[in-house]
Write a structure and sequence with these properties.
- The complex is a heterodimer of chains A (101) and B (481).
- With 101 residues, chain A is α+β, with helices and mostly antiparallel strands.
- Chain A has 1 helix and 7 strands.
- In chain A, strands 1-3-2 form a 3-stranded antiparallel β-sheet, covered by helices on one side. In chain A, strands 4-7 form a two-stranded antiparallel ribbon.
- The longest helix of chain A has 19 residues, at 24-42.
- In chain A, 19% of the residues are buried.
- Chain B has 481 residues and is of the alpha+beta class.
- Chain B contains 14 helices and 19 strands.
- In chain B, the strands form 4 sheets. In chain B, strands 7, 8, 9, 11, 15, 16, 18 and 19 form an 8-stranded mixed β-sheet that branches. A 7-stranded mixed β-sheet of chain B has the order 1-2-3-4-5-13-12, sandwiched between helices.
- In chain B, β1 (7-10) and β2 form a beta hairpin.
- In chain B, α4 (143-152) packs across α9 (277-312).
- Classes of the chains: A alpha+beta (101), B alpha+beta (481).
- Chains A and B meet through α1 and β4 of A and α6 and α8 of B.
């Protein structure tokens, strides 16, 4: 997401993220915004994401976050809804999302 | 849609009547050349102007300035007005970087003096002013101090750190809008913003040391204190992560209250009535972010003045350094405008557009009353910038709005691809422009070819009559985030 150069994983902790959304778009935007918040406000980077339950409007997850220093190549400032596209094929969802950089 | 759907109603003004599309509630008007208009049709930004014209309660027309380009939902260069009482407010009509804006300082330091010391000046600015992805602010603030900045804007920087209260008159809205309710700001916004006061940021933000290359309007230039051959300093930055978080927070809040998101042409155009609690809260949070941005530019200005004083061995007064003006170009503000000979209170959204008040307007600094508001239009990295002034014509045509910059032609991604293998610094240096940045990627994103020709944007602005040229500034040193 940030084009990070290296993330040596040490001192990993768990961060619970559960969200009830009004749509899948809303769910994804809020999930990615949570990762941005952890990065910019807490200086944490997610090294592993564990999904316990996910539907179109609900996510129960645990992020394994590291406070290791890392060098972002790109400053992602916000996650937008602009032209957000979700494509479902053979039961797999893929999406196109635009970040404000 | 193509060019023949538009009517050139006067030089540089293109009208698309509301009959063009059944959902339009107002006409669309683009201030542009045929070439810029054609490009805007292709890149989708005209469709965005049409989408804004389809919003409820829009007053008079959905406008776009000559630096129009594609944005999130609402085009960059877009201007839209809604009634202050019954209208709507949309965060997408302001943008994420609330009160991103530009500040111009004039000096009496000669261009040749800058040339002699430019290496030292560039290195020192890059060393002392936090740029790019840094987290380090120039000061470490406690939450109470940060809240005082959100409340008092630029004045708080002067009271607590350094500066001159007389400068406040030369900042749009005196560098402060009403904010009294910390409860409407999320903890996340406070966390993101607290350590970012006095930081330039990345993207298209910059500090530029320039030389006054040409004077077009000697009376206005003299009034603004801009002198041929002397250096000017330009600062372009905004409300950093704080403004982005406010925008994201309120887009989410508005979504939750919005009855039918699917009906919106773009979800980024989600809105709320101005009179609703959600609308009122957003507007006050926007004021807090605007105050942050004015404080941010003020703190950077004070740090820059100190660096210049040290390097050139003189005082601010002795070096003739003074603030010409500070203006927002991503903001929504209540203003009164004449509509069909009646004065109406309106909420004007300007996203990538500059306020351009005419001579005699009560909000202008007294000194500028006879000539109008300075309108600062920065060029792209390596090209000229311009100072213009507001006109009476703009009051009737564009709710006193003008262009804000060159306007992107290539996306950042395309600009990086275009500049593959190029040494941007070396190319600039050949043109006697010294570029300082920690980010090679950032430089590639901001190559001059990524932007429209600033000269063309300014010519159209003047031809349409929404501002007139005062001076042209050429870059000597560029410090990029």
């Amino acid at each position: 997401m940030f084009g990070k150069e290296s993330v040596p994983a040490k001192k990993v902790s768990q961060y619970k993220f559960t969200y009830r959304a009004d749509s899948f778009e809303n769910l994804i935007v809020n999930f990615l915004s949570e990762i941005l918040y952890l990065t910019y406000s807490k200086a944490k980077v997610a090294v592993k994401i564990q999904i316990f339950d996910i539907t179109d409007r609900f996510l129960d997850s645990e992020l394994h976050i590291s406070d290791t220093q890392f060098t972002p190549k790109l400053d992602i400032k916000s996650v937008t809804y602009h032209n957000l596209k979700i494509i479902e094929k053979n039961g797999i969802k893929s999406l196109k999302i635009i970040f404000d950089i | 849609m193509d060019l023949k759907d538009f009517k050139e109603i006067s030089a540089g003004r293109w009208l698309l009547p509301k009959e063009f599309y059944k959902k339009m509630n107002a006409d669309a008007e683009i201030i542009s050349s045929a070439e810029i208009l054609r490009a805007a049709i292709i890149d989708g930004s005209i469709q965005q102007v049409i989408n804004v014209a389809s919003l409820p309660e829009i007053v008079a027309k959905s406008l776009a300035m000559p630096d129009i380009h594609y944005g999130y939902g609402f085009c960059i260069g877009g201007v839209a007005a809604f009634p202050a009482d019954t209208g709507i407010v949309l965060p997408g009509g302001v943008g994420y970087d609330i009160n991103c804006g530009v500040r111009l300082l004039a000096t009496e330091i000669e261009q040749k003096e800058i040339t002699l010391l430019q290496e030292k000046l560039g290195t020192e600015i890059l060393k002392q002013i936090p740029t790019g992805l840094t987290k380090q602010s120039l000061v470490q603030l406690k939450t109470k101090q940060f809240l005082a900045i959100l409340k008092k804007g630029a004045a708080e920087i002067i009271d607590q750190y350094s500066g001159d209260h007389q400068d406040l008159e030369y900042i749009e809205s005196g560098g402060r809008l009403d904010f009294n309710r910390p409860d409407i700001i999320s903890k996340r916004a406070l966390e993101r913003g607290k350590n970012q006061i006095g930081t330039l940021g990345s993207g298209n933000h910059f500090i530029e040391i320039q030389a006054v290359d040409k004077i077009y309007d000697p009376i206005a230039a003299d009034t603004f204190g801009i002198k041929q051959g002397m250096a000017t300093i330009m600062i372009h930055t905004g409300s950093r992560g704080f403004g982005h978080q406010i925008a994201s927070d309120y887009i989410e809040r508005f979504r939750k209250k919005f009855s039918n998101l699917k009906k919106l042409p773009d979800q980024q155009l989600v809105y709320a009535p101005i009179a609703s609690n959600a609308g009122k809260n957003y507007l006050e949070a926007l004021n807090a972010a605007s105050n942050f941005a004015w404080a941010n530019r003020h703190m950077i200005m004070e740090a820059l003045i100190e660096i210049v004083e040290q390097i050139f061995g003189g005082s601010k007064k002795g070096l003739g350094i003074h603030l010409v003006y500070d203006q927002a170009h991503n903001i929504a503000k209540f203003e009164s405008h004449l509509i069909n000979h009646n004065t109406k209170d309106l909420l004007i959204h300007r996203k990538g557009a500059t306020r351009a008040f005419p001579p005699g307007h009560h909000e202008l600094p007294k000194k500028y009353s006879a000539v109008g508001q300075p309108v600062i239009i920065p060029g792209s990295m390596g090209t000229a910038s311009y100072v213009l002034r507001g006109t009476r014509k703009a009051a009737g045509l564009t709710f006193s709005s003008s262009a804000h910059g060159a306007g992107r032609r290539l996306s950042r991604h395309k600009a990086v691809k275009f500049s593959a293998g190029k040494n941007i610094r070396a190319e600039m240096r050949k043109r006697n422009i010294h570029v300082y940045s920690f980010s090679e990627q950032g430089l590639k994103e901001e190559i001059p070819q990524a932007y429209k020709e600033i000269d063309e944007v300014v010519e159209i602005t003047e031809t349409a009559g929404i501002s007139t040229k005062v001076a042209r500034l050429v870059p000597l040193l560029v410090i990029k985030g």
